[in-house]
Amino acid sequence: SWLRGYFFTETPAAMQRQLVAAGVAVTGVAAALALRRLVVARRAAALLNKLQLKTPVPPDVEISQAVKLTPIKELFDRKFGLREGELFAHGTYKGKLSLSVYERLKHQPDGNYVVVCGINPTPLGEGKSTTTIGLSQALGAHLGQQVMTCIRQPSMGPTFGIKGGAAGGGYAQCAPMEEFNLHMTGDIHAITAANNLFAAAIDTRYLHEQTASTNFLWNKLCPADGSGRRTFELSMRPRLDKLGIFKANPDDLTASEIERFVRLDIDPDSITWKRVTDTNDRYLRGVSVGTSPSEVNKKTGESLGRESGFAITVASEIMAVLALATDLSDLRARLGRMIACTSRAGEPLTADDFGITGALTVLMMDALMPTTMQTLEGTPALVHCGPFANIAHGNSSVVADRLALKLVGPQGYVLTEAGFGSDMGGEKFFNIKCLYSKLRPSCAVLVCTVRALKLHSNEAPPVVPGAALAAEYREERLGLVAKGAANMLAHIQNVRKHGVQVVVAINRFHTDTDAEVETVARVAREGGAFDAVAADHFAKGGAGAVELGRAVMAACAATSPREFRHIYDAKAQGVKDKIETIVREVYGGAGAKYSPAAEARIARYEADPALRSLPICMSKTQYSLSDDPKALGAPSGFTVTVKDAYVSAGAGFIVVSLGTISFIPGLPVKPAYYKIDVDLSSGSPRVVGLS
Questions:
Q1: How far apart are the C-alpha atoms of 116 and 333, rounded to whole Å?
Q2: What is the pLDDT of residues 230-264, one digit of tens each?
Q3: Model pTM greater than 0.85?
Q4: Nearest to 99 by CA among 111, 113, 82, 114
């Protein structure tokens, strides 16, 4: 009864005082710490979700449904001693974690911060999420460590398309996997609603400005009350401040000031803000909006429609804003800075100009709290945000990582996943996410597979989703592994250039031979990795990743986060200089060439000190270190082509496009939805077919 929440979060001296006051004999701080470790270990053992391993490994959804999970409030309370009101349950097995936890623990030292990224993958993926979760299960359920796993929420588009879900796989999953892969706690729906409200506001404002007089707009935006008095809404203040109008009384505005205030003078051809949906739908890539007879200038007969398109929700800038915000105030400020279009004079128009920032913030308030879930073996997880790594920065949220680092304490471990390879989500983790969070990683885990290294030899047939793997991937081919390891070595060096130690996780498949795995481990260690360890968590759960867990613990103990460094200086270097630094130092290329459109945009950004100082978010293929998806292995001396660039002012980076990237995927001939259904035969409904 004396063991309360503060016991897990206070300083050793404070714990000793509390124990003595409770009548527990404690002879020193060391004894208090030893007692704390004992209690934490016993509580963790009591929560251990038991796995019943089967061979062959059953489908993911069947494994997830067979494990008896711990109710989420009980799990987080026992692991971290949460206080009343710090976790809001959404059903039995998921919840929302209050940001007040960070305020309570902000003076406590952070735990070890471990980023998990990968090499350039095959189209099948190399099991990075599975490895992240397997490592978490090893650290927490088998090695007795405090651990938190921070991963992204998957989009439902790929879940019903070709890729499937992202809860991990086999006996290394985040659970319940049905809830993980579907609606979860509604964060993506909140982003959809906020994004589309902004889109509606833009088109509606354009319509009204084209069809109404200035006096009519003024009387609608600032109507006089019964006594003839007008007032500004609080949401209008940023627009007024931007215009240099600091008058509190609307009636004090001059005719010129009223004109400037009510007329944004939107250039319809400049509108870049798209509507979004969380569905793979190729037919929405290009659409006509405003084609109804009601969207016409009745005086001139001119149609006020335009050509536009949809993006998938996770590609919305609001997703990136949510992922990089540090608190509610920062979220609001970032939302207000989002640029949707320009005026006819070329002035950027933001959410603040449209007076919609407050409404967007209200829609996103609950989404700012990370979702609490668990792995199959009862280690806690925070699932939050899901920006793609090939079109955005590809990392889970700053908020989740900051909360997790405080909760696990200085001896604990936080595993955070970065999308795709070290050249994609990894590079953006180091140079965007860490820039804004001011967090420093303790080490990195680089996930690779024998299969991917064989592909990167440039001597094995392509890996095609849905097709049987060629013999080269099913049989021992040491020569292919050794040659393809050049890709892994390039990624090891990418991470080391940031001052971070690398542990290579060889995600083992049943077709891999011991000799192939040993070749990968030897080449990795010789190439600068702190260690390289095979892991079989897919088939064995956390028990299959214990040696990987020990290697990560050793790497964190052997290095200091103070050694971490960014690959470029965002504030000091120019836009082109930052782009070309990434190309040379991360991709292994010689430089970049620019399209006329990119040259023009970058010239404008260079002239604006606020934009010039932003970090770079490269948008390119995930399959190669270069901008050519067919350039496998470790190409060098190439020149990338910058096709375009645009500012995500709310997120706080400049997106640089190295190719044509679709912002909304399509569906294949046989999408995953063919297999997904509800089984009603057992009495209670059961989801089947999710993967």
A1: 30
A2: 999 999 999 999 999 999 999 999 999 999 999 99
A3: yes
A4: 82
